[in-house]
Amino acid sequence: MSSPSPRVGFVSLGCPKNLVDSERILTQLRAEGYAISPSYQDADLVVVNTCGFIDAAVEESLDAIGEAIDANGRVVVTGCLGGREADIRAAHPQVLAVTGAHAYQEVMEAVHTHLPPSDDPFTSLVPPQGIRLTPRHYAYLKISEGCNHRCSFCIIPSLRGDLLSRPIGEVVGEAERLVESGVRELLVVSQDTSAYGVDLKYRMDIVNGRPVETRLEALARELGQLPAWTRLHYVYPYPSVDRLIPLMAEGLILPYLDVPLQHGSERILKLMKRPAATEKVLDRIAGWRAICPDITLRSTFIVGFLGETEDDFDELLGFIQEARLDRVGCFAYSAVDGAVANDLPDPVPDEVKQDRLQRFMEIQAEISRDRLAGRVGQEMTVLIDEVHEDHIVARGPGDAPEVDGLVLIEGAWEGVTAGDFMAVQVTGYDEHDLFAEPV
Questions:
Q1: How far is the CA of 68 from the CAs of 55, 63, 74, 96, 378, in angstroms?
Q2: Is 226 helix (H, G, I), strand (E, B) or coil?
Q3: pLDDT digits over 3-51, tens only?
Q4: CB count, 10 Å around CB of 182?
Q5: Which parts of 115-160 are beta strand (E)?
Q6: Which one, 35, 197, 366, 422, has the greatest CB density within 10 A?
Q7: Spacing of C-alpha 312 from chain mean position
Q8: Shortest CA distance to 403 belongs to which of 234, 287, 272?
């Protein structure tokens, strides 16, 4: 008779890239016979996968570690905050072990040390696509680790290292397994998606018996052959990205780009050491829309960066009014421990940051509403997320999960389930969402 499987609790914090790390660790735990516990109390040990990008994330991670210690007592810490082991142990000296980001082997070694596996792992319980933390019909596909840029406000390279691209054959193979398991939307993520393959000098790899370059355009073409949506996140506006837009117009990949622009003032972009500071972003956006009029553009911005003047902020407002982006997130600048920007002069007072944030969002909200209004009367295909008694919650090509809007379809509809595609016509809109009815 086999002994009971040791049980591991798991807490995953942070961005989708961290979520993929959690999925890989959970898959390995299950492959080695560990059971996953939904509660602290029933777990023999708890793994906390942390985020350490900004101070608020650090605080949330330290709180989560403390909560796990209070409820269970036996905690292994991994993830981005793991690179600051001294800070973790100063707050929580009881932790059993600390590892850094995407340190899968080190996490497993720590678990083995403090909770040895049973002697009969049930590897057959692990599906080919691995363990996932997203709904069955969509999944994040991480194509690289790390980043070669040194933005002054960011500490990701110190947490996750330089760019390390996965071979294209490995990525496409994972995508195929996900689609075979029922995934209908692949969300491509990395720290700098447009740089995919640079570190490998775009070398050839084998995809289904064919030599293919490890390059984003080639990857998009391969993923476009699968019966699933492909959505690109974290794409810097390099000239190479222009080659992706015809693929969107052809319907191979979704007409959607998540482009982290961060500011509209050239002076502030230089202080931020942004890699796209000299790109003619507005001209590039106009070119994209000329080729693919239905493209949805999402971005994020920072207000109140060190040294930002009212003139700089006015430039930012002018930029967003001209760019007319569909989906926008904005954040008041928050200092990050270890960031080069901490040494810059002229910090912006908190009350000024908040005032600029409010003014920014008021202008962008009007732009977003206008962009949504332009969708009324259009027909589109949506992916169903939830089916309720009296309505359906879905997303269109311009709606990434968790961060964008929804498409709401009123009425009771039999025979449809989450993960189905449906053709609809847009009938209305509000500040964030669209309303539609089946065609």
A1: 20, 9, 8, 12, 49
A2: coil
A3: 578 999 999 998 888 888 888 888 888 888 888 998 999 999 999 999 8
A4: 15
A5: 138-142, 144-145
A6: 197
A7: 29
A8: 234
Consecutive H or E run containing 11: strand 7-12
Q: CA dihedral in degrees (309, 311, 316, 320; nearest 10)?
A: 150
Closest by alpha carbon to 142, among 265, 15, 27, 267? 15
Residue 396 contacts residue 382 (beta carbons within 8 Å): yes
- 293 with 278: CB under 8 angstroms? no
Which among 402, 421, 18, 372 is positioned nearest to 185, based on CA atoms?
Answer: 421
Q: State the Cα–Cα distance between residues 277 and 324, nearest whole angstrom.
A: 19
Please, which residues have CB within 8 angstroms of residue 9's CB and are 6 or more apart in sequence?
36, 37, 38, 39, 40, 42, 43, 45, 46, 47, 68, 72
Which single residue is written with the structure tokens 């003014």? 359
Question: What's the number of CA atoms in the CB half-sphere (13 Å) around residue 77?
Answer: 32
Place of tokens 């995508």: 175
How far apart CA 272 and CA 268 sit, in angstroms, is 6
- Listed in sequence order, the DSSP H helices in 74-167 are 85-91, 104-114, 156-160
pLDDT of residue 2: 47
Q: Which distant-in-sequence residues (6+ apart) come within 8 Å of 234 by Cβ? A: 189, 190, 191, 192, 193, 258, 260
Tens digits of residue pLDDT in 277-295 = 555 889 999 999 999 999 9
SS3 at position 397: coil
Neighbours of 399 (CB within 10 A): 25
What SS3 class is residue 118?
A: coil
